[in-house]
Amino acid sequence: MTVHKVIFYPVGNGDTSQIVLDNGQRILFDFRHLKSKGADDPHIDLNWRLREELKEAEQNYFDVVAFTHGDEDHIAGSTDFFELRHAKKYQGGDRIKINELWVPAAMILEEADNDKQSEESVILRQEARYRLKKGEGIQVFSKPDMLKDWLKKNGLSLEERKHLITDAGCCAEGFTLKQEKVEFFCHSPFIKHCDDGDDLRNSAALIFQIRFWTEGEYVNYFAIGDSTCDVLEDIVDATEGHKNEDRLDWDLFNVPHHCSYHALSEDKGEKETIPTAKVKKLLLHGQAGAYMVSSSDPIDDDEEARQQKQPPHIQAKKAYERYLKETEGRKFLVTMERPSREKPQPLVFKISRDGIRIVRVTTPAAAIVSSSARAG
Amino acid sequence: METQFLDIGSSPILEEKLEIEAAKRTIVAVHNREDFKLIGFRQGNGSDESSEIVIVDCECDGVPHRYRQFKYPERLALQFFSDDSRHAPIVHALRSCFPVTAHQNPTSDNEPRQLCLYESWLDTRRSWTPERHLSRIQEWFTDTAEGTLHRDDQPVEPFYLISSKARALVLPEDFEEKISAQHTLFACAPKYAGAESTVEIGRIVPVVRGRTRPSGIPCIVLNLLPIIHGVIKCIPSRLGELCKQLEGHSAPIEQEMRGEIQKIVGKKPDRKEWRDDRVLLVLKLPIKRSHEGKEEYIQHWGFIIKENIIDLGVKVGALRKGGKKKNMRNTYHWIGDSEQSLTEREKLVGWQRLNIRPLNIVRSFTSEFAREMSGVESKGPYGLLTGVGALGSAVAAIWQREGWGRWHYSDTDRLMPHNLARHSGCSFDIGSSKEKVMRRIEDTIFPAYDEQNPNGKDDFNSEKCELIVDVTTMLLAQYRFDASKLSCPKAISFMTLSGRDSILLMEDKRRAIKADCLEAQYYRAVISRPWGKAHMHNHYSFRVGNGCRDISFVIPTGIVMLHAATLAGQIRRGYESGKAMIGVWRSNARGRLRAEIIKPKEVLTTRTSRFRIIWDKGIQKKVRGLREKSLPNETGGILWGYFNFPKGAVYIVDAVPAPLDSRECGSSFIRGTDGLEAMQKEVVRRTSSIVNYVGEWHSHPSGMSSRPSMVDKWQLSSLAGEMRREGVPVLMLIVGEKDEHWCIKAA
């Protein structure tokens, strides 16, 4: 029986998820390691957890590590965790290897003097550039003119690096439904957005529809990092334009940008965000029994939460739940709430015959994990 | 389409009305779970009136989202009983088209289905909480969807689940063969006094043609096609229902029955001859784990059809009434397949309404069944078990129940009242010989036809004997059957008089080391190992009669059983391995049982004119080593051993190194005496005076033969003179460079 897994890690308002294919290949999406603030810190110790998983699988590498974009909440701690090929100081010890790095073109192109950029994003850009120059261990998504210019500046032609670049509307190289029983259909970035300089990184973040094949049926996972409604609208337009509607279907939906209302509409709404018509279309592509996952802090339903500026937004959650119900979906889940807010655990979905299901977490006796035992 | 739910319990009640603690706690647990939602409450009805029902919707995220059998959520009724020590909580699935799956309790068609959650409620109850109950329900759904609810190590599920309290019928193992070969009848054997009337013991009654049938129930056996286990069916109450359940597993039942009925009643049956108004229907149903799997076992199901076999024959279209003439009124004819058209047969529906009553068909206990139950793989030997006293009868009882070996018992000692403390016999056996008692017990365990049961009829066939087990407590066993004529291996087993220790001396398959030699090596262990110190002492005796042998020892019965259990297992293992062994099992008051296993050494035998000197490679190695160590000087010491005059044998148990005050030089050795007296006392004590001084050994230096020198000969004569008081000869062992030489001399 073919069994794939999708794992979401409780890393607060940030993203880290992993796909473990039936053949054992591991694809990690984003990386956010938070330094522990003590025994009561609900965030997972990501470094430890991923190392444990790799140890069990007896390997010291990921087949693919995809950084959807270079924001801090998607890359934090990654330059201490991974082995980077471009400089000796990021090598050796127990660093975890990346066989293939996936980045949006923007991550190659961003300039260092941008004050928004963290130190780590600069390091990762150097790594991506190094790999692209070397011509191995990388896949870049979309090829805006700026990328062509960059290649030229580095004495390379587009033709020479074409095999390492995948455009929106195509599937990532290296995975097929026949062989690996999975394909990564790239929705974003697409050129229009990459050349638009306003909010370069978010609009150019990676968005995939990941299609798994399990005995007789497809299961679709819509993996969106950070995004906004205008990007999603463009995706719906483009996909419909190409008559690829099935590429909008989803059985598992990674709620964009930690459940921010911006991914639904410009307007937050008082009690509930009303999605734009095209985003609504995307939401209605949800299949019966589907799940939504918000990789975010817990979402409260009170006045304070409604006033909150930063995501997650309760108004957005309500909108998602409405469409989930309409499409007979199952649940809207929040990574920092499962199985408890005190000690969330990775959320593991199994994809196998008959579809997608949640793997039961066997939690140790509640008192052991709730806090450190104290005596006075 | 809206989901339809089945009704449960009586009318709805308010939450405040709930009284059962488990129901109330479950409500709290449901509030704390996001995947359960409260729907309502009901009071139980009918015989479950005092029960309370909590209706919930259960979302199970462990079920794949496209799994079609289950809904998300499923509506469930959680039923709780006021007396939870008798009733496990029941979980009913209320959806009207809830699927039939494995691990459901049998229910009728119009009742909600019941999930089977707990294998053993009384065990589960100790740590049951409502929270765990809810998780267990989800686990049931997840595992059913995954197909993993039934673990690989669990036995396959039966087709029907008949209560263990239902009427049971014990069928003889050879039942099928006899029924199908001769179309004999089945009858119920007389029961032992006190047996429950719900258990019947079947036996076969032969049919004698042309006479009134003896009172017996005609029996139809149907062989069905294998089924894949999984769904337990509701027990049918009418023949038509049964037939429907078995669709696809056999040709239509009525069709099968037609042929069988004709075979049983014979041509032109007379109804007067068939007096019993019942027919026993036995179904043989091979069960498989999966389509690819092999048949794991054959289940037998029995149903009593409440109908005379002749009338049943008419109802299913096998027989037709003879005619209207007076002398033909009770005679019937067969209906051939060609005589009756299919449509005519289809019209016969009366048989479908016949009442049937289920019977638990139970295998009778045979030695083969016994071996299966105990995990004993081989049938074991045809053997002679001599000495069936306390220990022997307990060992025998274990092998009987394990179905290992076919035993002939030998013990003419009569069973007396005091024996009942430790013997398997009963008060009505008093006065019988112990061998008879053991045969009587065997007869009451196994049916007469069993291979294991010689029934006391056949004589012991010494040529066929494969193992002699001697539990006679006599060190030199005196058999009624001349043991020397038996070439099979022997196992000698006994307990020390304190009951603390038990001993096994087991010959190898080829009998390279015989039991008497093992005995000598056992004594060596007793005198040389630390545990030997307390091995044979510390026992209490008392008189049980007025004869000089009427002495018994105080040994707790449990200790006898403990050693019997150990020995029964070890003898079986030893026989199956074919290797010789010496084993001592030492028990202590705290219940520890410690095994001392001694590896037997190869036996060496030297023949002299009067005696066979029996020693072994262990002693040889020891004296050779001592000689080497003392070179270039000579060395020596004394020999422990014992004589068996009737057998003309002397057994050497051990050779002792030179005492400290000995004088060793290149051409002579003068053995000292330091510590020897104390040592002798201890050896005699440890072996209950069996082992004692039997002679001397010394070494010769390099270049000299092992033949006795003049000094040696003089020495031997002198020692023989000293031993005259005992009336025993003296031995001398000379250890040379290449070989050893034995001398023996009597004064």
List keywords for this structure.
heterodimer, A: 376 residues, alpha/beta, 14 helices, 27% helix, globular, B: 747 residues
Q: Mind explaining what this structure looks like?
A:
- The complex is a heterodimer of chains A (376) and B (747).
- Chain A has a nine-stranded mixed sheet.
- Chain A has helices at residues 46-56, 72-75, 78-81, 106-109, 119-134, 145-153, 158-161, 191-194, 200-203, 229-241, 277-283, 303-307, 314-326, 366-370; strands at residues 4-8, 17-20, 26-29, 61-66, 97-104, 138-141, 165-166, 182-188, 207-214, 217-224, 250-254, 286-294, 331-334, 347-352, 355-358.
- Chain A is built from 14 helices and 15 strands.
- Chain A is α/β, with parallel strands linked by helices and 376 residues long.
- In chain A, 27% of the residues lie in helices and 22% in strands.
- The model of chain A is unreliable at 198-202 and 364-373 (pLDDT under 50).
- By secondary structure, chain B is of the alpha/beta class.
- Chain B has 16 helices and 34 strands.
- In chain B, strands 7, 8, 9, 10, 11, 12, 13 and 16 form an eight-stranded mixed sheet that branches.
- In chain B, strand 12 and strand 13 form a beta hairpin.
- In chain B, helix 10 crosses helix 13 (557-577).
- The longest helix of chain B has 21 residues, at 557-577.
- The A-B interface holds A 217, 251, 287-291, 330-331, 350, 352-360 and B 59, 61-68, 72, 138-139, 142, 145.
